[in-house]
Protein: Nuclear cap-binding protein subunit 1
Organism: Papilio xuthus
Amino acid sequence: MNRRRGHEEEDGYDRLHRKRRRVSENQEIEDRLESLILRVGEKSSSSLESNLEGLASVLEADLSTFRVKILRILTDCAIRMPEKCTIYATLVGLLNAKNYNFGGEFVDYIVKTFKENLKTGKWNAARYCLRFISDLVNCHVLAASSLLTLLETLVDSANEDGVPQVRRDWFVFAVLSTLPWVGRELYEKKESQLDHLLVTIEVFLNKRSKKHWPALKVWSADSPHLQEEYLDCLWAQIKKLRQDNWSEKHIPRPYLAFDSILCEALQHTLPSIQPPPHNEGDTYPMPRVIFRMFDYTDCPDGPVLPGAHSIERFLIEEHLHNIIEAYHLERKECAAQLLCFPYKAKIPLEYCIVEVMFAELFNLPVPRYLEICYGSILIELCKLQPSTMPQVLAQATEILFMRIDTMNIACFDRFVNWFAYHLSNFQYRWSWEDWEGCIQLDPEHPKPRFIREVLGKCLRLSYHQRVKDMTPETLAPLVPLKPEPIYKYSMEGAGKINNIS
């Protein structure tokens, strides 16, 4: 009896050990698949096309065992790394061509994720989901008519009554920001439906209230750069894209290399999707004004800065904002990622980065992150790119100073705080002589007031003699008074106070 129990215990141990080993092996394979999917599109010795083809074969072989895991990883990657949206759409397209059932399951999974993000108020994630769904049309996973039905449903939601305008704005923004990826395909296959969609959007934008616009402008004057409300600006960019026959020069489209394979795949249709109703307590993204500081005349050397109404400007700025969002807690990594922007050879990258950084810093009513976050990232950028970034930042500072007369007072204060902090990290060196002319202005004029407040902040970050030494004699009246201790018992009349007490 004892011998039998011992034998049974030994068998139980073996079974448990084998189970643990099997779980461990499965976990290793899952981790390997996750790593492969995450890293696709990164620099490697092989071409992106061969990597995608190889990865599609690997995933297809593991679908029977790790189907749910693959669905989740692909969806998460497409949402969390929207800059690689077209790469993952191509991968899904190749898998759909090999395994039609998996393509259908993936469509169901991404639609479910889209609905959940709408329901829980994860608006950015929902917008990236919609973008990915749209890109699946380019890869022949979804029918174009099916996508247009979804886009029309979303635009119809923008015409609801009794809901906040920010909710209606989001639906239109989500649809418009999707069109750079799929506009060309819809134009070629469903031109009349696309035109009808755009007319509906235009009608909405024309009757939309913009009373928030003046309160969100960094400057009260629109010269030299027009400060456009974000939906108006994107609409102008989409109209320009439409004039250019929906062709842009920024989005990588790896699926074009697999057109002969993808075009033979069977397509799926989207199920009916109705956005959840508005509930009290729901919060939506706030409207904003598009910040403009530079145009092509400010970037004399190298690549040309895309125009304010070119869709490339929107795509570049959105990508840079996403990098800041992803890495803002690690200033060194954030600066490195910004400077490693994948299309830096085609654009004046330093100018784009500086404009986006100040757009975040001056965002009204409040910036997304702490003000010092942007100051510390700009310092790291200057350290990593010492040959160009300090000069571009100095040029930006001059432009801001020249336009300070009409700057919003909250942005004025942030500009003061940033500039003093920046100077304190670069030995307080600045060409103050260029600003000597403002001493002739009224002391309360924004320009002398700016210098006075910056010097006051520098005093807090150093000491009075340092501030006095760095300032030219002509600006001496703007230097703050030397802080002196006050001993009330040594003042005139202090003896009488002592006698009374």
